């Protein structure tokens, strides 16, 4: 046995180190995805026997108006969430200055990242309260009599929730960009200064190109985070009013656990998985291309 280990440890060591993670990935991700797709081909209440229905759940999904509302809300999440990248970069550039008291400022901007999403949802639920919330106090200070109840308005409810979720997401992008700014090539920056580059030109032609990989990672994680949004919606509105703030993840949860339609919920989960897979494949291709350069 010792001789076998010595002669094969070059490939056995990485295999043993990777095995726990690969087994966990296979069981939790691959097998669960296959099982979810299998359930989506059945009518099942979660307790009794599964009844084969084929693609009927998917056909019903295409005729379900709530599905398109959820899909539209996911698109709104993605579009609004993308603003976290320029906002995070702007704050990172501000905090990267060597000014007295900047460490305290970094801690304050970093704080939303350590809060749970549920906590953020509760805080912004209080903020949006049309009677006693901070938003109401701001409106009253300007003499406004009527304060909009954003979480009760079917048009504004989704943007209001996304704004709440943006708070920690901007902090996350800020941390990524701060790490990137601390690893900039000083020689390129000094060469740019000699050539007269400063301000926006320095940012555009020297700083941002060096943050390309960080920006790519932030973009991919932001899009996937927007697609998997769930907990803050559950805390702030539970998908209301009348399903107007529901996204695909929450609709899947609602159909499965409240309507006891696990087959239909699995069909929604499968569609969401396919949408996310497009971004995941794009992300992995980008990583491979970056490694090849």
Automatic annotation (TrEMBL):
The keyword Membrane applies. Signal peptide: none annotated. It is a multi-pass membrane protein. Coiled coil: none annotated. The chain crosses the membrane at residues 12-34, 75-95, 107-128, 156-181, 202-226, 262-284. This is Sugar ABC transporter permease. Its main location: membrane. Residues 70-285 form the ABC transmembrane type-1 domain. PROSITE patterns: ABC_TM1 (PS50928). The keyword Secreted does not apply. It is found in: Cell membrane. Belongs to the binding-protein-dependent transport system permease family. Keywords: Cell membrane, Membrane, Transmembrane, Transmembrane helix, Transport. CDD domains: TM_PBP2. Pfam families: BPD_transp_1 (PF00528).
